[in-house]
Amino acid sequence: xxxxxxxxxxxxxxxxxxxDRRTVFMIVVLPLLLYPVLGLAVIxxxxxxxxxxxxxxxxSKPDNFPPRVPEGAxxxxxxxxxxxxxxxxxxxxANLAAGLAQVAHVYLDYPQLVTDGRxxxxxxxxxxxxxxxxxxxxxxxxxxxxxNRTPLDTRQVDLIVSAPxxxxxxxEKGGHPTVEIVSRPGDDRSRQARKRxxxxxxRWQTDLKNVRLRRLGLPDDFDQVIQVHDDTKDxxxxxxxxxxxxxxxxxxxxxxxxxxxxxxxxxxxxxxxAGEKERGxxxxxxISPASREEIVYGKFLTIWVFSxxxxxxxxxxxxxxxxxxxxxxxxxxxxxxxVFWCILLALPLSAFFSAVCLSVGAYARSSKxxxxxxMPLFLITMPLIFLTLAPGVELNAFYSLVPVTGVALLMQQLxxxxxxxxxxxxxxxxxxxxxxxxxWLALRWAVGQFKREExxxxxxxxxxxxxWLRRLFREKEPLPSTGQALxxxxxxxxxxxxxxxIGSDQGLIHLSVMLVAFVxxxxxxxxxxxxxxxxxxxxxxxxxxxxxxxxxxLAAVLLWPLGQLSLYILDQFPQIKKLIEDQxxxxxxxxxxxxxxxxxxxxxxxxxxxxxxxxxxxxxFILTGLRRRFSPWxxxxxxxxxxxxxxxxxxxxxxFLILGVFLGWLTVRSGSVFPAMLFHLVHNGxxxxxxWLKNQGYAGEELPPETALLIRLSAxxxxxxLAAVLLWxxxxxxxxxxxxxxxxxxVNGLPDRKPETMREINQIPS
Length: 766
Prior knowledge:
Blueprint: H1 3-18, H2 21-51, E1 54-59, H3 78-85, H4 91-107, E2 114-115, E3 118-119, H5 121-124, H6 128-133, E4 139-144, H7 150-153, E5 159-162, H8 167-172, E6 180-183, H9 188-215, H10 239-279, H11 282-286, H12 292-324, H13 336-363, H14 367-374, H15 376-386, H16 405-416, H17 428-450, H18 453-456, H19 465-474, H20 482-498, H21 508-530, H22 534-537, H23 545-572, H24 576-580, H25 584-591, H26 600-626, H27 632-645, H28 653-670, H29 674-695, H30 705-740, H31 758-762
Parallel strand pairs: 1-4, 1-5
Antiparallel strand pairs: 2-3, 5-6
Helix pairs in contact: 1-12, 2-12, 3-4, 10-12, 10-13, 10-14, 10-15, 10-16, 12-13, 12-17, 13-14, 13-16, 13-17, 20-21, 20-26, 21-26, 23-28, 23-29, 23-30, 26-27, 26-29, 27-28, 28-29
């Protein structure tokens, strides 16, 4: 691939897109104007509603509430008692009584909720910051003469509050009088007034309780048995509101970035592919000296620039809007580190959307049809991004593999991280690596679309679902296609995800049902219903004895290196142990050799079922279908990745990927799935045997760490050398065999190269 050609096509497409004023407006002008204008309108409306005072109707005599009946109820008689105890007319006694009256009023008098026709300022605005904002003006009082609901129903007041006439008398006796609140059901103004009043009543109730404790000679914290220290707690009254608002913003920012990344890729993808077909310029580009891959990569870079620019300009606009309204929003603005992380993650996300939109746009015949094809991407993306807005959904080993969801959840974690120690560093590679892989697969799909003349210049066609299904089941192909293989994997993954938490407490029963019903059954049914040679499509051919011996030797030699790789990953990421503790296989491992161990047939079951079911699906049906379009090694790598992905744990991805490569190589080499099954069975059996010996106490004495590390490294190197020698000898024998028999076929009767025509497939011996 020549970079000069790619750059020429890229700049040419970029220049053509920039000449379109609609594109420039949608990508540049609209994001910069949308958020400030929308933010101003929304915030003005919200603050206009929030700052509007609530009117509380109080059924009491004017000025004070609750009324003091009798007039001295709730007031301490201590100053009067002191004055009477001293000589009447003594100036010193009068001054002492006056000072004591002031102290008693502050500490020993039950406080009024409403004084001088308004709520007490300390209850409305307990902090200086709240007083500056004007919280004390948000609750107003209207005294009512009667007890009817007319002022409430006519919206003169938002709430009606009443208390019994002997309120203070009950308090004096140690009783618990009731304060009645009447509101309008379902009314926003009444609901807001109720929320504000509840905060005031809570503070007033605390003061009443403290006065009662003081009169009994008890401290204010008498009823607080323990003390809780929270270093993240803020003394401000608005801390919880700030945190809630920032949590919402941290969820909305990734949501907007994802949607605008997709929106920025849709229109350019339709224009550079389907639009060129309509304008008649696609033929000129195809007959140029540029290869199809160079054309695809040039168009991809153009779409990527527009998608990333749309996302980043929206991010800048959101940041500017947040900064402009920072004084009215009770939280600090975005930190530079948070903005940097969002930019870093927006680029691979835009690349993924650009590659997918390019692949779909290349299939469309016209711009109108391209819009029909690309708009369903929103329907697929919306559940993936809405999943991140659901409460309780956090970044884990499974969600990091899900496209779009993993990136959005990682953005949320980075936006809310207060320091480098809270940044989820272990999830960067698990999130970015699958995204890069998905983008590469989409690009390869686009290259394949551009290499197919029947796709680029196809005529109008009418989709009839009934006829398509009839053709699918009547005109069967001998072996599964690539599309059927990928659909089989998607079906397996969807079934396992939907049943992830169902029956998980049943252990081996759940694992057995999952393997048989949700792994092997889809492959078997699709092979029987959609192909004419299901036995060959599943790789069920008798292998040579040599291939079976090779599978056993490789399983024994590679057991130690693969196990050490898994242990190394567990040592690097201790949190992985918590993720795999609940898996049925781990529970069986821990029970080996103990008194609560299951019967022997369950061990056989858990060793045989994974080997048979997973190999039928991944090395049988899926690998056969992938080989219809890809070369052997590409098909092996892709099927191995799908095999690792199906286990839904990103931290176990690498060991399963390596294991899948060897299993796929055995299948391709032997033309049968049975060696892979035997390898899988021996591998599981050796793992069970080692764990059983360890639980029985045959592991030997514990060695010093340095000696143990040296032995582990030496054993790993020795096993890898043995595996390399074995593979080299087998490869040499295969080269000699191919030299003697050039017509030898490989996996499932397919030739080593991709079959070019259906004639080649039909000539494969059964």
